[in-house]
Automatic annotation (TrEMBL):
Pfam families: 5_3_exonuc, 5_3_exonuc_N. 5'-3' exonuclease acting preferentially on double-stranded DNA. It comes from Aneurinibacillus aneurinilyticus ATCC 12856. This is 5'-3' exonuclease. The lineage of its organism: Bacteria, Bacillati, Bacillota, Bacilli, Bacillales. InterPro entries: 5-3_exonucl_a-hlix_arch_N, 5-3_exonuclease, 5-3_exonuclease_C_sf, DNA_polI_H3TH, FEN, HhH2, PIN-like_dom_sf. Residues 150-423 form the 5'-3' exonuclease domain. Signal peptide: none annotated. GO terms for molecular function: 5'-3' exonuclease activity; 5'-flap endonuclease activity; DNA binding. Keywords: DNA-binding, Exonuclease, Hydrolase, Nuclease. PANTHER family: 5'-3' EXONUCLEASE FAMILY PROTEIN, FLAP ENDONUCLEASE XNI. Gene3D superfamilies: 5' to 3' exonuclease, C-terminal subdomain, 5'-nuclease.
Length: 465
């Protein structure tokens, strides 16, 4: 239905219905509404018995903006927002965004909360959570001789989706929605990549880590220009975040995001906890070099480039390439900074490039020790860096705060690592692939394209085909 925006929530009686996937659903609905005329009217709103929320938009009628009317609110275990017929698309978008803000504090707060009820009555959409979080049995580790019991795959999901989108389109105007009106090229590429990863690496545990809006990042509060040079994502890409999150949620793939923190911070926290509590291999899927600082004997990076012969990048590879410890990558980047349209826009120390940053950190170990001993640079080939280092001392300290990946995100400290165990819902996967028009992937699964002959412990595509 061309003029209908809709989202299918999970039934609150099922284990799938929790605060996380409700937020994903609302974001999908927002993506659809953003494609409509903001002044158009919401002609009809229906929440069916199957928990599908439908909003019929009439662009022939100008909607009402109820300025000053009550915003979304949260009282006790219930969060609500106002969705009234004949209101404008812009007003409904405002209400739904407010509802997400009310739900977000419950997202991954000491685990996650199941949803008790979803109702729509008298123009009010209500989401009620349970009083207690989901309880999951702690990870029991059983090792076999010469074999790791578990393997964790951590995916920078936001980056992976963006790469999939730009790899499959040269021009934003060429991107066409599917029969249901959804853009899916980035989700399609991301899904295939995920299936390759499951086939080739057979993880037992998986975490897909998502970014949040830049405005909410704690780094923005430290430095308002953080990531300030980046363009807005194309609309066709923005809409696919909700589509991807709902798809993987329904497949049973663990997904994580925490307000104020980037995907890198979630990856950092989970990889650190995995190293400390489990000690088995952890693979990070990302092309972001900032994640080099997380490398250790257990943690390696699967570089997001299929054509590379050696995809797995280890601590040993890093030390061979740069002759520093992974933790010192933070200090090098604090001196180098980052500039450019697609960078994080880190100030760094102007005048100190790679030819200076690496020798300085190799010699002194950290920027703190470098500044403590800066007088020692007199009479050495590195003395030319004294002036810029002293001039930009405060920027170097600030840059280190921006570059350092958080390894103790508060909302993830209570998460049981076994929450990340992979349990693919085959029936839901087939249903979602069919609905999205991923017919080629379905055929490839039937043909055994993603099947492995290796029968190690783990979750392989063989088990879902």
């Amino acid at each position: 239905m061309k003029n209908t925006c809709h989202v299918l929530f999970s039934n609150p009686e099922s284990q799938r219905c929790n605060i996380r996937n409700v937020i994903f659903g609302i974001e999908s609905l927002l993506s659809q509404l953003k494609r409509k005329d903001p002044n158009a009217a919401i002609e009809k709103i229906v929440l069916g018995n199957d928990f599908q929320l439908q909003l019929k938009v009439s662009e022939k009628i100008t909607g009402v903006n109820y300025n000053g009317l009550t915003e979304a609110k949260q009282e006790g275990l219930i969060a609500t927002c106002l969705l009234t017929e004949n209101s404008s698309v812009a007003f409904v978008i405002q209400q739904l965004r407010g509802l997400i803000r009310k739900l977000s504090p419950w997202l991954l707060q000491k685990g996650w909360y199941p949803v008790k009820s979803i109702t729509f009555q008298d123009g009010v959409l209500s989401i009620e959570r349970t009083e207690h979080i989901m309880t999951i049995e702690k990870l029991r580790k059983i090792k076999f001789p010469g074999q790791s019991a578990y393997k964790l795959l951590l995916i920078d999901a936001s980056s992976m989706l963006c790469e999939g989108y730009f790899a499959t389109t040269k021009n934003d105007t060429e991107v066409q929605p599917n029969a249901a009106g959804f853009y899916t090229n980035g989700v399609y590429a991301m899904t295939r990549k995920l299936l390759w990863l499951l086939r080739d690496h057979q993880p037992t545990h998986l975490g897909m880590c998502w970014d949040v809006s830049r405005e909410s990042l704690f780094r923005r509060k430290l430095y308002p220009d953080y990531k300030g040079l980046r363009d807005e994502k194309p609309v066709a890409l923005q809409e696919q975040f909700g589509t991807a999150q709902i798809l993987f949620e329904r497949m049973g793939i663990p997904q994580l995001r925490v307000e104020g923190y980037e995907a890198d911070d979630l990856v950092g926290t989970l990889s650190y906890r995995w190293t400390e509590e489990v000690g088995d291999p952890c693979y990070i899927v990302s092309s972001d070099h900032d994640l080099y600082q997380l490398l250790n004997e257990s943690v390696s990076i699967l570089q997001n480039k299929r054509e590379q012969q050696k995809m797995l990048y280890t601590k040993a590879d890093f030390m061979k390439e740069f002759s520093i410890e992974p933790r010192q990558w933070i200090d090098v980047k604090s001196l180098l900074g980052e500039s450019g349209k697609n960078s994080d826009n880190i100030p760094g120390v102007k005048g100190v490039g790679e030819e200076g940053a690496f020798p300085l950190i190799r010699k002194y170990g950290s920027i703190e020790e470098l500044y403590n001993c800066i007088h020692e640079l007199e009479g050495t080939p590195l003395k030319r860096y004294i002036k810029p280092l002293l001039r930009d001392h405060e920027l170097a300290v600030l840059s280190k705060k921006l570059v350092r990946i958080v390894i103790d995100v508060p909302d993830l400290q209570h998460l049981q690592l076994d929450d990340l165990r992979i349990k693919i819902d085959k029936a839901a996967m087939i249903k979602e692939f069919t609905a999205l028009g991923f017919h080629t992937i379905l055929s490839e699964i039937k043909e055994g394209r993603y099947r492995t002959s290796d029968h190690r412990e783990g979750t392989s595509v063989e088990k879902i085909s």
